[in-house]
C-alpha cells in the first residue's frame, strides 16, 4: 500500500523538502522527496541544535567573521543535500534533483538602503559565485525590483534560477520574461531550467486580515486560486515556447497557518503537477494522515466564488503589502542568523 506522500508523487507532483537538515534530507528522500531548499531560518534552527559546533569551531579557528561563517555553513549544508539528490538530477537529465541556495537577503535590508543599481550588480555577482561548479544547485533570487532586474543576466550566465517571493501574476510574468530573455542569450537551451516559487498560505493570511468581507466559501481559497491561475499561465507559456527541460512552478509556503485547516490543505490543492516544497512538519502530518491524493491542480472553485474573489481582492494591493512584509521577513532572519553565530562563537570560545 502506497504511503500518502507516495500517492501525492504518483499524481505527478515533485516533492521537495523545505530544509537542508542532513537527517531530514535523508529521511525525506526515503519518503520520495527529490529536491530541497534552504533559507536563513533553516540554517539558524540547525545551529541551535549544537550539531554543527565542531564545524563552527573550525571556521572560527580559520579566522572567519560571523557573516563568512554563516555562508560557509550554508554552502556546506546545501552541498550535502545536493549529494543526496544528485542521482535524481542525473536520472532525470536535469529536470529534478535540485537544492536551492538563497542569495544574501541583506541586499534587501531596508535599514542598509543599498542603491538599486548596486543591489542588481551584487545579485549578479553572488549568483555567479555561488552557482559556479554546481550541477544541481538552484540560485534563489527574490522577485523584488533588484532581483527581477538581475534575472536576465544571471540566466544568460547559465545560472539555474529559483525566483522566490512571488505573490502575483505581475511578478511572475516579469520574472519569467526576464529569465526567458536571458535563456535566449545562451549558446544552448539544453541545460536551461527555471522555477518560480509562488507563496500560498501568506495570501490567505492577508485576506483574513484585509478582506474579511469574503464569504466562507471564498475565504481561505484566494491563495490556492491565485497560485493555480499562475500555474496555468506558466504551463501555457512554456507549451508555446518549448524547451528541453521543464520550466516549473514551485508551490511554496504550503504549511497551513490557520489552526482550523487540515495540515494537508495546500498539499492536496496542488497535487498533480510541478513542485511542492513542504516544511518537514507538513510532510510528517501528511504521512500520518492516511490520505490518498488525486490530481487537483487544475480544479477551481465554483464560478461564483471565483467572481467574488476577483471582485473583492485587489491583487496589486495584496502584492504591495505582502512584498513589504516579505522583504522584512527576508532580511531579518539573516541578521538573526549572524547574531546567533556571534553568540555561538562566544559560547564556544569560553567553553
What's this, in brief?
Helix content is 55%, strand content 11%. The protein has 351 residues and is an alpha/beta fold. The chain has one domain (4-38, 88-333): TIM Barrel (Alpha-Beta Barrel).
Give a structural overview.
With 351 residues, the chain is α/β, with parallel strands linked by helices. The protein has one domain (4-38, 88-333): Alpha-Beta Barrel (TIM Barrel), CATH 3.20.20.70. It contains 14 helices and eight strands. The protein has helices at 4-10, 22-31, 40-48, 53-61, 66-91, 116-131, 145-156, 169-183, 201-210, 222-240, 265-269, 280-289, 303-312, 315-349, and strands at 14-17, 35-37, 99-102, 137-142, 161-166, 194-199, 248-252, 275-278. An eight-stranded parallel β-barrel has the order 1-2-3-4-5-6-7-8, surrounded by ten helices. Strand 7, helix 11 (265-269) and strand 8 form a beta-alpha-beta unit. The longest helix has 35 residues, at 315-349. The termini are far apart. 46% of the residues are buried.
Question: Which descriptors would you attach to this protein?
Answer:
single chain, 351 residues, alpha/beta, TIM Barrel, eight-stranded parallel barrel, 14 helices, 55% helix
Describe the secondary-structure layout.
Blueprint lengths: L3 H7 L3 E4 L4 H10 L3 E3 L2 H9 L4 H9 L4 H26 L7 E4 L13 H16 L5 E6 L2 H12 L4 E6 L2 H15 L10 E6 L1 H10 L11 H19 L7 E5 L12 H5 L5 E4 L1 H10 L13 H10 L2 H35 L2
Parallel strand pairs: 1-2, 1-8, 2-3, 3-4, 4-5, 5-6, 6-7, 7-8
Helix pairs in contact: 2-5, 3-14, 4-14, 5-14, 6-7, 7-8
